[in-house]
Amino acid sequence: MKKTIEDLAVYGAVPAFRETLHVGRPNMGDRKRFYERIDSMLDRKWLSNNGPYVQEFEQRVADMIGVKHCIAMCNGTIALEIAIRALGLKGEVILPSFTFVATAHALQWQEITPVFCDIDPVTHTIDPACIEKMITPRTTGIIGVHVWGRPCNIEALEKIAVEHNLKLLFDTAHGFGCSYNGRMLGSFGNAEVFSFHPTKFFNTCEGGAIVTDDDALAQRIRLMKNFGFSGKHDDVIYVGTNGKMSEFSALTGLTNLESIDTFVAINYENYEVYREELCGLPGVALISYNQQDKCNYQYVVLEIDERVTGVGRDRLVEILRAENVLARRYFYPGCHRMEPYRSYFPNAGLVLPETERLVQRVLSLPTGTAVGREEIRKICQIIKLAVSYSAEKEERLTSRFVMEPQENIQYEPLPALMRA
Questions:
Q1: Which among 25, 133, 246, 248 counts the fewest CB atoms within 10 Å?
Q2: CATH classification code of 261-399
Q3: Does 406 score more than 50 pLDDT?
């Protein structure tokens, strides 16, 4: 265990971990069952086009969520685009800037204007109190994002949507397996969209899904994801694209569904170790979850208050990466500061103060089946060391380490490690 500031890899010491620890390393279920399903798929020679594994996967997810329809997709982004189009959204749609850029791109790709709304500083989800100020005659919908798997204020969003005759879509990329007041996420609004990307605690290798109780909407979505084919040979009755999930992705999902309780239990255990280790550390707040509802605990997220810690979030990222811990700044710098949105809306930050604040503070740490108690304790020891030393170490820590850019993250000149 590292005991002094000189033991940190930023001074040239040996990194704490020989192998890199990632945020969101893929979980995988029983390999024997996985290979059995692959053999069955190959024997059938049915690799795509609504095969038996896709049909089984859709039914299993629909039953789990408690909805009538699950339409599996090749990925979560295409699922968002098709859901937006199937709902008839156009003009302007209100959404948070604190989300993965695919949420905004799914609108912009279809020439719909994303209108960025601020977030609640406690929940990190879209703030209903800010939405009504942004509604115009061109507004056709709201997209709520269940960040970290913590639900939006669903009742407030539903109320606004009904009062203003708006469609309500939820980006539930973080929320698979989570619930709200005893009801599973995926069963709210006009529809909800899941991502099953490998970085998610539950994955289908690559994939996504749209879930809904609306029969007519589900029928449109099924047409749109398969070029508009009605199901009869050569009978195209709708404009569509190719959003189909493959049999390989579906069998991966079925295998991982069988281990989903194990994945959640490991995530929860890891979360509790982080909580115990970092409890009481000044300026470092671990986000909390509602123990009364189901949660996947797939994100271990800290808010770093540099005024208290003396060490900024970005510098902590550098220190951890030197130790081979690829901690991440999440949703940085906010969609409104990415292209094309920063050119379209150069002053958007003025109405997004909580978003601007949060993107500078959030730090996501490794969890899942790839890490255990001892790795987490080492990670926390590194954080505690960095936070415990004061401004007298500033010059040494800011001048001895330069991080190479990774994972397409945008880096800006970093502040000094310690502040007086």
A1: 133
A2: 3.90.1150.10
A3: no
